[in-house]
Specification:
about 90 residues; two-stranded antiparallel ribbon; 4 helices; 4 strands
Length: about 90
């Protein structure tokens, strides 16, 4: 039985780090491939019936991206709703 969904959303990326690594390293200690990703490694032990998601998006301040905050927020909501539709299937 699914009790909850946990959605981790990383913060801003002011240092122009790689988008994927920034998202994962926000939740991994120490940073890098050898770090422990507690969302994957620890949280399921405490919440075995929860689904855990990591929402990854480009927050580099000087990336030249054309998306504004509302575009990113709408993308996040659309993806979350799509995942919710798959509950129980």
């Amino acid at each position: 039985m699914l009790l909850a969904s946990v959605v981790a959303v990383h913060g801003l990326n002011p240092k122009r780090k790689d988008v994927v690594n920034h998202a994962w390293n926000t939740w991994r200690k120490p940073s890098g491939d050898d770090g422990r990703l507690w969302l994957r490694d620890d949280l399921p032990v405490s919440l075995p019936d929860a689904r855990v998601f990591l929402y990854q998006y480009d927050t580099r301040i000087f990336s030249g991206q054309k998306q504004n905050f509302l575009d990113v927020a709408n993308d996040f909501l659309a993806r979350l709703l799509a995942k919710r539709r798959n509950v129980g299937s």
